[in-house]
Amino acid sequence: MTAPTGRRERKKAATRQKIADAALRLFLERGYEAVGIRDVATEADVAVTTLFAHFPSKEALVFEQDQDFERRLTRAVTDRAPGEQLVPALRREVQALVRHCTGDDAAPIWRMIDASQTLLDYEKSMRLRHAESLAAAIAADLGLPPDTTACRTIARFAIDAYSLAREAADPEAALDEIFRMIEAAWAVARPSAHPTGATGA
Questions:
Q1: Long-range CB contacts (within 8 A, 24+) of 15-20
Q2: Cα 70 to chain center, whole Å?
Q3: What is the C-alpha separation between 15 and 11, in angstroms, rounded?
């Protein structure tokens, strides 16, 4: 996560992390369904209103890096080096996210998610939102409307690549295979950039 700069921002970030850590600790100890919002607030020593100021729902406590992941994906497009191709830039960021989510310490969290239909549904809606944000960033990079089909399709492919690789026995090999297909699809489907759009897609 990007480091907050001001004292107030640092304090807010620390409180948010304390709440997320407390929630995860309780969820893993007792089970997601057995823990309530008040339990988390008590464990984190904050008011329920403070908890909701940082997290809009109980599900969001599990996916506490949701917004950071979304920003990283869009910045892979918007902040890439001049002349750098779009798909390799996306692959590098997706690879970093997969590595983050396949470490040994992540396994118990994913087992918890896989055991809860509520969390699986939330994770699905989160991926769709990430794909829409990524599609908008790709379209803007090309100077195209945000609902351009090719941009939405390639964004969905990239988000699905993250999920498929995370679940694979060999995530790196899975990413290689998937992104070869994404590269081929983008080469065929990439729309022409508007004259004001960026180059190097």
A1: 15/46, 15/50, 15/54, 16/54, 16/55, 16/64, 17/64, 18/44, 18/45, 18/46, 19/44, 19/46, 19/50, 19/51, 19/54, 19/55, 19/61, 20/55, 20/61, 20/64
A2: 4
A3: 6
Both structure tokens of 21? 């850590």
pTM, whole model, 2 decimals?
A: 0.85
Residue partners of 154: CB distance under 8 A and separation at least 6: 87, 135, 138, 182, 185, 186, 189
SS3 181: helix
pLDDT digits (tens, 9 = 90+) for 73-86: 999 999 999 889 99
Count CA atoms closer than 13 A to 129's CA, side-chain side: 12
pLDDT score of 196: 43
How far is it, in rounded angstroms, from Cα 4 to Cα 12? 9
Closest Cα to residue 45, out of 9, 14, 66, 6?
Answer: 14
